[in-house]
Amino acid sequence: ATDSGGATVSSSAMVEVQGAGPYFTAAVSIDPPTGVTSSSVLLCLAEAADSLGASIAVDYAWSLGTGASLGSAAGSMAGAQLALASAGVSPGDTVHCTATASDSAGSVSGTASVSVENGLPSATVLSFEGSGSDPAIVRTDDVLAVTASGTDPEGSAVQFTYRWLVDGAEVLSDGPVSSTQSSLDGGSYFSKGQTVQAEVVPSDGMDDGAAALSAVVTVANSAPTAPAVTVSPSAPEDYEDIVCTATGSTDPDGDAVTYTYSWTQDGAARPDLSGQATVPSSETSLGEAWACTA
C-alpha cells in the first residue's frame, strides 16, 4: 500500500493448490467373472493413482451379499486373492470385492461382484462286465452290470441315472438312484450280435453333470445246452449196428442246433467214425465197450 507521501508497505498470504483426490486408472474387477464355483480362486484387482497421478496401493475387502466379511488385504499393488473352498460359500451366494484407494486428499472406492454357481458333479465308469465265467465276454443269457463312482465339488451326495443303449437306442433308464451299480438282463434286452453300452449321468440334486460312457460290447454267440444222449440197443449183439441219439438241446440265441458225434472203443478214440451217429456191426466184436459223445 502507498500513501500520498510516497511511503509503501506490503504483506503476503499463501495457499496450496489441492488435487481432486485419488482416482482409479483401472476399475475394480474380479477374475474369473463367470463360471465361479465354491472351489474357485478369485482375484480382485484395481489400479489407482493419487491426486498428482502417481500410482498408489489399493486396499481390498471381500464380503458376502449378506454383509459377512470374507477377509481383506491392505496396501496391495497386485490385487487380492480369495480361495472360496476355505471361505465357506455356497451355490447361490454373491461375493463382493470392494477396492479403496486413499491419499492425503481423500479416498475413492469401487465394488465388483460375482455369483457362485453350482459346481457340476462328475461320474466315472469303474467296470462294465457280464455275469458269465469270463466277465469280458457277454452272451445273450448274461446279466450285464455297470459300476460307477461320482464326486461333487461342494461335497453333495451324488446320484446316478443309468441309460442302457442297445444298438445305440435306449432300452432302459434307471434313476436317479444312489446305487453305484445298475444291470441289464440279456434275456429281456439283448441278443447275439447286438452292441450294448451304458451311459451314467451324475446329479447333485441341483444339476446334472456330464455323462460317463462305458465301453461298447458286442454280444457273443451262446453255446447250446447239453443234449441227452442215448445209445441203442443197450446190449447189442455182434450183428447189430449201434446207434447214438442226441436230443433236447436248446440255444439261447435261437439258432438251429445240430449234433456231432464221436466214438470210443474200449476207451480209445475212433476218429474214423467221427461225425457218424451209427457204428456198423462190421466194426464191433463181442465184449467191446462202445461210448458215444454228442
The proportion of strand residues reads over 45%
Describe the global form. Answer: rod-shaped
The percent range for helix content is under 10%
- Largest sheet, if any? 5 strands, antiparallel
DSSP, total strands: 22
Determine Rg (CA atoms, Å).
43 Å
Low-confidence stretches: none
The number of helical elements comes to 1
Give the integer mean of the pLDDT values. 92
Q: Note the gap between the termini.
A: 141 Å
Strand-pairing-aware structural class? mainly beta
H/E element string? EEEEEEEEEEEEEHEEEEEEEEE
Can you lay out the helices and strands and say which pair or pack?
Blueprint (H helix, E strand, L loop, with lengths): L22 E9 L9 E9 L5 E2 L1 E7 L4 E8 L3 E4 L10 E10 L2 E10 L6 E8 L13 E9 L7 E8 L2 E9 L3 E5 H4 L5 E9 L8 E2 L3 E2 L9 E5 L9 E6 L14 E4 L2 E2 L8 E2 L10 E4 L1
Antiparallel strand pairs: 1-2, 2-3, 2-6, 4-5, 4-7, 7-8, 9-10, 10-13, 11-12, 11-14, 14-15, 14-16, 17-18, 18-21, 19-20, 19-22
